[in-house]
Amino acid sequence: MSLHRRKRFSSDELQALEILIGAAICPLRNACQFSAMEQASLTDSLTGIGNKRAMDEALQKAQLLAGRHNETYSLILCDLDHFKAVNDNCGHVIGNIVLKRAAEALESAVRSSDSVYRFGGEEFAALLPHTDQYAAVDVAERIRSAIEALQIDCGEHSVTVTTSCGVALHRTGEGTGQWLARADEALYRAKDQGRNCTHVFATIS
After folding, report:
1. Which CATH superfamily is domain 52-200 in?
2. Which of 59, 127, 182, 196 could form a disulfide with 162 if both were Cys (CB 3.0 to 4.6 A apart)?
3. Catalytic: which of 57, 122, 123, 156?
4. Active site residue 122
């Protein structure tokens, strides 16, 4: 903070300014600390992307906007295939590296207007505003291809992973729980069809 004027400040004025600034510093510092804590509570500590709480809040907001302004939102759920085998065969350190790299690949595959989350152990999500089923499936396929292309050095060999994706377009009047359940059902179907693929819940016409 800097203060300027043509006339030089008097000693009394400078003292008053010091008192005023001193009184403002504490609330400002507290506000900054609160903001940092709030941000931390919405961030996954391992990958640096949004966590389940952030995802829940984003879905709630998207549902309200979709209802009020008739906006189109799509949700993609992703689950790394056979991730337990990575932890079992290579250890949790390598497993954590895989999760970080998968989050980076997911972020690189979406637009800046989209948001990504880690809401479970090896489960990720992408929320896509102004996106219909056609475009959402394209994004899901980009995510799937980006994760499939990852190669993580595990010393003696490289680790690769694949992901299954489920897509659900928000339906007018449905709650976030219903929307999430449909995306989860689509993800289940993708896994049931052999994994490393994308399934959309609603039929694309």
Report:
1. Reverse transcriptase/Diguanylate cyclase domain (3.30.70.270)
2. 196
3. 122
4. yes
